[in-house]
Write a structure and sequence with these properties.
The chain has 115 residues and is an all-beta fold. The chain has a single domain, classed as Jelly Rolls. The chain has no helices and 10 strands. A hairpin with a 2-residue loop joins strand 1 and strand 2.
C-alpha cells in the first residue's frame, strides 16, 4: 500500500477535503477505502442531528473526534476523545451538535436496524 497523508487534521485541515455521501446527513472522505484485508480509514462529517442506526462491529473500530461531539448509548465524546469498539459490540451513533471524526474499521459494520 503506498503512503497516504492528510495534513493538519487535528487543526481543521479536514475542512479543505472533499466529502461524498455516506448516510443521510453524514458525509465521508476516504483516506484508505477497504481493499482486500486492509482496514478502511476515513473522515466522517455529521451534520447537527445526524445519526447512524444500530450496528454491529465485525472487526475493531477506532475513532478520534476531531471536532464537535459524537454520542452513543455509553456517552458523549468531545474533541480529542479516542474511542475503541471491539469486534462483536453494537451501538447506534449520533451527533446533536455535528462533528467530524477520524475512523478506522477492520471490517465493514453490519447495520441492524435502519431508520
Amino acid at each position: 500500500m503506498p503512503r497516504t497523508t492528510r495534513e493538519t487534521l487535528t487543526t481543521g485541515g479536514w475542512k479543505d477535503l472533499a466529502f461524498g455521501p455516506f448516510r443521510e446527513d453524514v458525509t465521508i472522505h476516504w483516506i484508505q477505502p477497504f481493499e482486500g484485508d486492509q482496514p478502511g480509514i476515513a473522515l466522517l462529517k455529521y451534520e447537527a442531528g445526524a445519526s447512524v442506526p444500530r450496528h454491529r462491529h465485525e472487526g475493531l473500530e477506532t475513532i478520534l473526534v476531531l471536532e464537535g461531539i459524537q454520542s452513543d448509548e455509553a456517552g458523549d465524546y468531545a474533541r480529542g476523545c479516542y474511542i475503541v469498539n471491539a469486534a462483536g459490540t453494537e451501538h447506534s451513533v449520533w451527533s446533536d451538535t455535528g462533528c467530524v471524526v477520524l475512523i478506522q474499521w477492520d471490517r465493514p459494520v453490519t447495520i441492524l436496524e435502519d431508520s
